[in-house]
Amino acid sequence: MVVNKGAGTIFNERRLGIVRCLTNNNGECAIKNIAERFGVTERTIRYDLDVINSFLMKKDIPIYLIIKDGSIIIESDIYNRLESLEAIKDLNLQFDEYLPSSDERISIILLGLLFAKDFITIKYLSERIGVSKNTIKNDLEKVKGLLEVNNISPKFIPGRGLYVEGEENFIRSAALKIFRETLPLEQYIKLADVDLYDYRDDYFGIIFNYVFNNIDIKKIQEYIFILQKKLDVVFPDFEYADLAVFLGIILQRVRLGRNIAMEEETRAEISRTNVYKKVKATASIIYKLFHIDLIDDEIIYISLFILSSNIFMPPRIDDHPHVLEYYVYITDLIAEVGEKYDKRLINNENLLRGLSAFGLPFYYRQKYNIPAHNPYLKEVKANYKELFKIIKSSISCIGLGTKMSIPDEEIGFITLYFATALQEPQKKLRAIILTETGLPIGNLIAVKLKLMLNIDIVSISYLHEGKRILDKERVDFIITTSPFIYRNIPYVVVSPILTREDIMAIRDLMESISNK
């Protein structure tokens, strides 16, 4: 819907601290010291510098912050350092100063319309966002186009204001899409972190409030915990955050009197699944936690969302009656891609096993036209261009009876399985993952690594437990979100969202270890 990468600026304590450190130290501060002071990685500080530079650019101030020889310094093509420092001081920056970008304004307007109890006026939006009425009017032209693309009709009644009309499924899908596409992945997965929800003044807080207003996020997390136990599964961080937002959207829309209406065929198929039976058993818990009585179509809707998510539950015939049929499609696809690209793929058991598991939620997404969200698509296309193209041309083998074309997001996921199969080393290396948050982020890293590398993750734990675990486990190297030195065991520091650079660093370390 809206892809927001040029975010508005929130001068939180850390970013304000960076600026103050520079103004108090003649325009130069060691990035290591800043990171240690605020308890974050240097990668986070680098992201903060991008945000600050964006803010300065919007203010038409020809100053930018760079990192040179391990220090943050002030640069300018016009000012000398003293003049640059004075220009920054003249800004009189305040904690929590927020300037919404154009993309952010559009997302805020969209969510405001999708969750409105009544008509919304241009005056209200102007005051809510802090921009002129003319700016809002210009933004509304883009909003109108985005709504129509998503099968939602914007309406305006003179003297009353704006509202939207559309099928409930389209409205909910649009709201979820805004969250997925406008929040950076690192922020999105932090929806699983209770401690973040006291901050409401930045863009993250504003859009969060639309979905979780008057809803205790801890109760949603309590419900997801119960649901995981019922299903005997642990949701990866992205799927956990996705489900939290999804449930928040349901609760808000139901409170507005907007219930979902499922088609009879969908109702018949999903009601036979084990997932539906487990979700149905938690309906009383939803009522107890939120005082909302969900109709059966809402239970069907939640069950379908879980079945179509990349959670990879053990297959059951009642959840996946077409699993054998899909198995045939997968073997045909592997054979065709193997002939066109690399014959080593044809008899690769790990590839067959991985794609077979992926196919279970893929089936539901295809049959019910549920869009996948693949945050790694650009990287996949860039790194595996030829393989992606061959898979796309061969994908008709797994049509599963649908007339729909397979979207690039799905092909991107499938490409990762093939790429992993081609990069499997002869010996599987053993690694431990250590993070500040333990399992939530560690599981996310592990899931991504298992998709991309043939690696044996022997343990996932907190940093402070690393030495105890390493005294018991034999590992070849350590993957950590902060520097961790113990017994000369090689380690690699990665971001919680595991970027392409992180994958390359892990791959280089694995090759180095394998070649010894």
Descriptive account of the structure:
This protein is of the alpha/beta class and 516 residues long. Among the domains are: 9-99, Arc Repressor Mutant, subunit A; 323-422, PTS-regulatory domain, PRD, CATH 1.10.1790.10; 429-514, 3-Layer(aba) Sandwich (Rossmann fold). Helix content is 55%, strand content 9%. The chain has 24 helices and eleven strands. The protein has helices at residues 13-24, 31-38, 42-58, 81-90, 102-114, 122-129, 133-149, 168-182, 185-189, 203-212, 217-231, 237-255, 264-270, 274-280, 283-290, 296-307, 323-340, 349-367, 377-383, 385-394, 408-422, 439-452, 466-470, 500-514; strands spanning 9-10, 28-30, 64-68, 71-75, 98-99, 153-157, 161-165, 429-435, 455-462, 477-480, 491-493. It has a four-stranded parallel beta sheet. It has a three-stranded antiparallel beta sheet with strand order 2-4-3. Strand 6 and strand 7 form a beta hairpin. Helix 12 runs antiparallel to helix 16. The two termini are 49 Å apart. Mean pLDDT is 85; it is low at 2-7.
